[in-house]
Amino acid sequence: MRLIIKNITIVLLCIVCSTSCSDDFLEKTNPNELSTGSFWKTTIDLDNGLTSVYNAFKNVNILNIAPENNRSDLNWPGFRRPNPNNQFVPYYLHTFNDSQPEINNKWSALYTTIFRANQVIVNGENLIGTFTDEEVIEFTRQMIAQARFLRGISYSYLYNMYNKGSVPIFDFIPESESDFYQPLSTADKVKAFYLADLEYAYENLPPVWENTNDKGRITAAAAAAELGRSYLYEENYTKASEYFVDIVTNGDYGRALVANIGDNFSEAGEFNSESILEVSYSVDFKSELNAGDSQNVSNNIARTFAPANRGGFRVVQPSAWLQMAYRNEQMDLNDTRNYVPCEDGEDGCDPTTLTRLRTFSVRASQTLALVEDLDTPYYAGLTTAQSTLFNNDEPAYFRKYTNWATVDSERDFVPLSRSGINVRLVRLADVYLMLAECLIEGGSNDGGVDEAMDLINAVRYRSALQLVGLDGSGAFPSSSHDNVAYNAQSLMEHLMYVERPLELSEEGHAVRFLDLRRWGVIKQRFEDLSTRRYWADNYPFIDEKGDPATRWNSILIEGDDAPDGKFIYIDFEQAATNYNESVHAYYPIPNSEVTANPNLN
Questions:
Q1: Which of 311, 346, 380, 583 has CB atoms 3.0–4.6 Å from 342's, for a disulfide?
Q2: Domain range holding 120?
């Protein structure tokens, strides 16, 4: 970390080390260079510095979407079943160690964000006392609050991911070499530190930013969501509920579920009413930079998920159980959104209404590319079967984070490996489901079941899914329900293994892994999933030229009754054996930090 921080060369955030020299010439300030003494003078300087903090938080190494989700039950780590070979496999197998590049890069990116945030916080606090205009003071306080949020959320990520929460704390600007060698702070101190930052942001940021030029800035709603999530992770349901209820009921935030779930994953739907915390990207700038450059304003996530013939590396694919869960999602048969136009004589077509039932639920179609999906086009506006090969035992791909709706191939971006799709870290549906968990207190409070089901059903109704609970109940009595009388425990099971993974798959910061860990079920989950067996059948279709064709081994089927010669899909066998709570629940301190910092212990 010391070497990383000392090598930061952002001119606006340079560190000036004072030296003692007898020669007056050597003590003169170079008028052509900015220094901390000449730069941090106005709110404009402060806002420029804040921009660099936001830019640091764009670094995709902070989220590590592929590694973090490979640690959970959501992913198969790429192609070449049953022996994948890519840099993310150690996370799936739970054989990672402190030398893993992703673990080191994540640590580096988080502390870079913290270092830059400290520049704004310290200098902003120095400046605010020199102002007399109340509007200027308020503006300065809001900039400090944004920096404190970004520092706070960075420390919450460190707390949740590394060394059981015990990491070095920096709340100052290092001025000498020894300042870079900070010891580990206890997990309790780290948690208290980042909660104080988030609370400051919650109290000092507006619910929304009125000026369109401020779109994408942190709001009080984002701070409330992260505070609530932190208390939920600690099973403090009462405290967590306070923040979630504020988001859900406070009209000043202007939050509402969008009608189309796909707007949460597309470029067209960015900064919508459901989005609470969103990392902004664009392919319109800095095309001269390498796609992986930390100063880039685009991201390189799309090719990780996209299929090979559409310019992707497909090193992250949905696990078999997840594919089946989406395939089997029950639709609300009373909802007209689940019926699409068809031609008389077409399979499943009602000759009276000339409509047929959707192939898959709206949520499934917007999340995965499944070979039989006739209702949601894929790359080049083709059906999924026409667009994608589904070969090499790859029966599904994630749509999330890919540009399937706007380009024919991810190779269309020049230079390669660029995407402008924003990453939604927190959205209202996540808050609804977390609040539902609070209401039933993790499965122990039957008194909160009805309210919790209303929140879950609001999320399900948006995607025209069959609702949970008894027929005729709740806010949508005319919708079809599963007609199950839930108690707190059974509703918690639904949240754990249906609603949260299917609504939020691959989203946020390690959401699924952290959910499984806090529920204490990771080992058990891997062991259960490793006993399941799947195989894939063929899919005949009409290609884009109008000719009959077949996608071989592309329809996943669960069961051990595969015809002779069929490949058998088995997930998480090695993860079930390898996972050890004391070793794999958290990342170790990266070896780069161990080597550089003599004061860790």
A1: 346
A2: 2-254
Each residue's pLDDT tens digit, 450-471: 999 999 999 999 999 999 999 9
Q: How large is the angle between the packed helices 43-57 and 134-161, nearest 10 degrees?
A: 20
Residue 315 near residue 303, CB atoms below 8 Å: no
Boundary of a domain, candidates 520, 538, 573 = 520
| Orientation of helix 134-161 relative to helix 187-204, angle to 10° | 150
Distant-in-sequence, close-in-space partners of 352: CB < 8 Å, separation ≥ 6: none
By C-alpha distance, which of 446, 443, 535 is closest to 497? 443
The verdict on 243 and 337 lying in the same domain is no
Amino acid at 554: S
Surface-to-core class of residue 424, CB atoms within 10 Å of its CB (0-12 exposed, 13-18 middle, 19+ buried): buried
The per-residue pLDDT for range 291-316, each reduced to its tens digit, is: 878 788 999 999 999 999 999 999 99
pTM score, whole prediction = 0.93
Distance (Å, whole) CA 323 – CA 360 = 12
Structural domain tally of the chain? 2
Q: The domain that contains 107 carries what CATH number?
A: 1.25.40.390
The tokens of 113 are what?
């964000």
Task: List C-alpha distances in Å: 161 to 93, 237, 279, 509.
Answer: 17, 22, 20, 10
Write out the two tokens for 345.
């004589």
Q: Which of 478, 230, 500 is nearest to 363 (CA)?
A: 500
Residue keyed to tokens 């349901």: 237
Point out which residues pair with 355 in neighbouring strands: 341, 350
